[in-house]
């Protein structure tokens, strides 16, 4: 054996060196296998460096994304966000203020509630005035007083106000309109005077239809109010509905008698008290100013020749 070693060309220390390198390789392999790279700690350190140099992420990543199943080839995607480059962002919210600002909708809602409460107070006060001034006529069933959504309706029945088929007031009813006009001067809101008839047609030399009769009666009542105060002209407009808005049936005489009426409505809108009426109402009132300025003309006061006692 010794003879064979003496015949090799390599030096004798080569065997010792080769054994040393093999042992070192095994040693470093063992060291590498024992070591463990803490990726989360590495990313946290890298994040601290980015913060120090002015780069900040909105969401800190402490662990890399992992799949729960190594066999699965597809993973559910996460929520992506657009990346803004070369932009400095600064946010100022109302939460940082000592008194946060209310939303516009809350402000509008509070304003609407306050306006509605004010309108309800006006309606209640005006209703009391009307009830006190017209108590006797309400008890005698010559006038009806009704409160609706945003209005007070004073309903003048025909049996105490107008003769059959005429637009001339009964003389005993004139003081009632004087008292009603004085109360309207103290009230607020838009005034609508509307004439109504039953469904039986009328045609004579004065009125060719129920439309003309209902408008003539509404005009007569309005002029009685204007005689008390010209300021009411700016708040008043007229309407004629003929037989198309009944409050009772037209199948009976009692129902037709209720339908023949003049209604004075006090409408309370969202505007402040004392405001003028709508443009339409002002236009009609101004058109009637020349008629209302003078005394109410006597349109004959004669009953029509129609089939109905309007």
From TrEMBL:
Bilayer topology: Single-pass membrane protein
Domain OmpA-like: 149-270
Cell compartments where the protein resides: Cell membrane
Protein name: Flagellar motor protein
Provenance organism: Thioflavicoccus mobilis 8321
Pfam family, one: OmpA
Residues annotated as transmembrane: 12-34
Main localization category: membrane
Family of the protein in this entry: Belongs to the MotB family.
GO CC terms: plasma membrane
Region (Disordered): 269-310
Assigned keywords, A-Z: Cell membrane, Cell projection, Cilium, Flagellum, Membrane, Transmembrane, Transmembrane helix
